[in-house]
Structure formats: structure tokens, C-alpha cells
Amino acid sequence: MDHPYGISDFAFAFRRNEGTTRDLIERSTEPSPGNGSQSRPDPDKTSNSSGPGRGPDRERTIYRGRNREYALRASEVRTLIELGKFRVVPADDLARFSYNGEHSRMEHDIKNLTRHGLAEQKTIEGRSYSRKVLTLTKDGHRLLERAQLVSDRQAIYHGFVKPKEVRHDADLYRLYQQVAKEVEASGGKVRRVVLDYELKKDLYQALSRMRPDKDSKYERISIANRFDLKVVDGKIPIPDLRIEYEDDCRELRRLDLEIATRDYRPQGLGEKAKAGFHMFAHQQDHAKLRRVLDTQEISARIFAL
Q1: What is the side-by-side strand order in the sheet with 89-90?
Q2: Pick among 3.20.140.10, 3.40.50.360, 3.40.630.30, 1.10.10.10: CATH of 37-150
Q3: pLDDT digits (tens, 9 = 90+) for 87-102
């Protein structure tokens, strides 16, 4: 398998090869506000610091929902934000990345969030795996919006959808954490996470407004450019995950990431690679995916997930 990626593979803050389908960095055309994980002043919450010397993460803040109040720790609020940004988050990955591997602390927070009806948990199972995953509830979604805990430009989601895709979607959180670590190591700062749901909605809306008196080919290219995407064989491929970040020179940039599986159709896989997305895959899927790309004479690398 292609070796795990490193900072040199993305060349985050330094170079951009113009005019190729394998550009590693695509410059953002729109300014982005602060990171969605940063909260703003909110009249609907009050601090409740019970007990001296308990540490900032032991303190609870009262957040006012539509019909009730919630006493939440900072770590619980961070978890709600993570669940909202990614829709589905595996419990083990949440413990690893957001709680520094402290499973008991995470489980305590999840128990409180589920008791309040702000998050829910389920187990996804297959022939050779079983995994607990988490998502926001509708009440959790409403609380994030009411308390203005995420940026206006950061979409948030709730609930489990498309059961067959839950396992694939759950891998996006781990992928994000791995790539975000490289962004930060290069002096960058993540500003926004965009899932394919959001890109598809906005792109398809723009495509539906194409004027019939215009050349559809060039209109499609123009629309794709607006979204920093490419037209490939008449289609506009959409990545699983887009990370918008500010590099160490305060330039706004984007990374488009795709998790490929052995179930991908050869044509679809080729289109994603030609679009310039950074391709990731599980080790057991790599050999088949590599053969498919080689058959199409596509040299795009596949990184380890």
C-alpha cells in the first residue's frame, strides 16, 4: 500500500501547481469565518462553577433550550459540536481524538448527553465488525443553533440516515482528524468542514438554475469553478469531505478528500481521481483499487486510512 501521507505529500503552505488535475491545494475563493468549534457570547447561557479547584472542564454551563435548560461541561459541548459537524462519529475514535484516549470520561459525557436527549448511540454490525457510533438528536441540533455554538457557515446535522452508508460516513471523522493534524503541524488552522451532503445540495441547486439559452457545457464548467470543483467526462465529482483552512500565511485554502472502497465502480473511482481528490482507503481495499486505477492509466496515489 502507498505509505501513510505526511506533510510533504500535501505541501500545505508553499506550492501550488497551476493547471493540473492533481493540484494538491486549491485556493478558497470565499473568506471563511472562525472555526465552528469556537463559541460566541450567548445570552441564553450562564456559568455555573460549582466547587473550587475542580478545573475548567468540571464546571458546568447552563444552556437554555426551547423548553428546558441543560447543564453541560465544556467537553460535552465540544462533543455535541463534533457530532453535529460529522453527523456520525465512532465512539472509539471520539475517545481517541477528543478525550485523549480517556474512554471512561467520554462514556460519562455521552451518558449525560443521551440522558438529556441531545445525542444518541447505536451499534452498526457486519460480518466481521461491530462498532458503536454516535449522532446528534434533533434537540441537540436545535441547542447548537440556539446557543450559537458553531459558525453560521458550518453546517451541522443530526440523526442516522442511509444505514448502508453509516460505516463509510463514520470513517470521515478519523480521516479528518489525521489530515487536520497535518494542517496544524504546518502552521495552518482549520476553519470549516464541508460534507458531501452540503456540497451536493448547493451544487445541484446551482445546476438547476442553468439558463437554457446558454451553452450547457460551459455553464457546467463555470458552476464547477464556483465551487472549486472540476468537470470530468461531463460530470462534476464531489468529494466525501472538504476541509477549508487558513495556512501559515493566512491564505484560505481547501483540501478535498475521498474514502474509496472496493465497492466503487471503476468509472466512478477514475472520475474521483481525475478530479484531483486525495484518495484514502483501508488496507484490505488498496490492491483492488490500485489495479482499477492502473487499468485506466491513472497514477493518483492512494493513502492509508
Answers
A1: 89-90, 130-136, 119-125
A2: 1.10.10.10
A3: 999 999 999 999 999 9
